[in-house]
Sequence to fold (264 residues):
Amino acid sequence: MEEFKPKLIIEQVDRIPESAYIWHWKTEHHFPFHKHNKGQLTYVEGGVAFLYTRDKTYFLPARHYMWVPAGVEHYFAHRYPANFVRTIYFFKDEDDEQVPFYRQTGIYPVNNLLLEMILYTTKWDKDVLPGSNGYRFVKAIKNILPDISTSPLPINLPTTDNKRLQPVLRYINENMAEPLTLETISTEFNISERTLTRLFRSTMDISFFQYLKLARMIKAMGYLLETEKTISEIAWDTGYNSVSAFSNTFFKLVGKRPSDFQLK
Fold:
């Protein structure tokens, strides 16, 4: 089996600037933070994945794709190495800067039309050059994305490289079911509540309580799509003592009730 070399793949994507680059794979690859000179669409078949940029974590549920603009440092992780990961790297067009969609990182639903078009690209591999049928087909995909991708998933989690705050974020995400408060976290890390409040605001432009709420909702989304847990179990496992409070918070942030999101 050919040895997988992340650096080589990253270089190949940008080797021919005017090409589209198509890559479908079924093994788990680990990339470091990297960026491309091409916009990237990635669709993970089944399961869920996470997209990491330097300042945010995006949850990528089933039947959604991620869009990463050219030049944005990122990597993503998926939990099911047996599932196909389908990626199209798009060439730049002169009017890309005039279309807001192409300049914004986001997670979007995949409708039936787009899914069929993504699957059809398995006909090609690696570089697809201008003038070919494949290029015209890929260009059609790129052209329709702004029109069919008007409702990005409205929730993402800010991150930080602040060495003092990183262990706090890890603790929150590893102890989600606990009754976490500003007081308990401050005590755990021997930081004053005032200092902890200031750290969240100054490094991530978000309050402790806002971060906790977002982290709990992202954890809940994963449970809803990956497990057989009931809504009440998920509420409990994400730190809520009330199913109605959990459901109302989920609806405000995600735009769907947990039961509707789970069915989708």
